[in-house]
Design a protein that fits this description.
6-stranded mixed β-sheet; 12 strands; alpha/beta; 10 helices; Rossmann fold; 39% helix; 4-stranded antiparallel β-sheet; binds magnesium ion; binds adenosine-5'-diphosphate
Length: 247
Amino acid sequence: MLKIENLHAEIDGKEILKGLSLTVNAGEVHAIMGPNGAGKSTLGYVLGGRPGYEVTAGSVTFDGVDLLELEAHERAAAGVFLGFQYPVEIPGVSNVQFLREALNAQRATRDEKPLSGGEFLKLARGQADLLGMDYDMLKRPVNVGFSGGEKKRNEMVQMGIVNPKFAILDETDSGLDIDALRVVGDGINRIMRAPDKAVLLITHYQRLLDYVEPDFVHVLADGKIVRSGGKDLAKQLESEGYVGIAA
Ligand code: ADP
Ligand code: MG
Ligand code: MG
């Protein structure tokens, strides 16, 4: 599904990704772990198409298509979802307005009819129910005044609504208490664990991986994957730290 080869990327003239290669097949969950500043979020942004990042070498294909040639909205329409480490606040735009626009824009690129307000609300409420989110939060401005955990939960509601094919989730577990962690973990499994979908789960901690069991774990350090293994690698990292393992 996703094939990253020798990816080099920089921001403001500083090289952050330094030859990263990774293949993700349909049906797989890959965890990316690694020390602060390793380039994990940068990888997510480059895959999501965030402006400001310059790819200087390498390639990324998604279902055989050159992902790097697509605009961010075209990537979303192709089924790529990026969950941010720091979800943005959008004052003045309600969650339902935002989510409905996003979904209908994607439907348009597939020649599907836009959902009406009523149809959309039904879908949104269904997802809110599944994620244990209050309907009131659907009406509030996007993420404004939401706690860290609420933003992450909201992001999972958004993911449930757009129902992507490939999700890059950047520290979705940060700011979550134990109960919220389980709800979010269950949500990821429910929405994304399917033979035709895949997930790149960026996380500092092993704890989310107790709920969303990865098929592969990779250590990203200084812009490259320096170690890959199965889910036991995450446990080993938790007990030993990155220092010995990344070396
Ligand atoms: P991680 O998510 O693994 O903690 P990031 O991808 O956020 O790491 O950051 C990787 C590196 O890129 C860090 O050293 C960070 O300081 C640097 N970086 C991020 N944005 C910029 C920028 N605009 N200019 C220069 N360096 C940046
Ligand atoms: Mg970080
Ligand atoms: Mg980060």
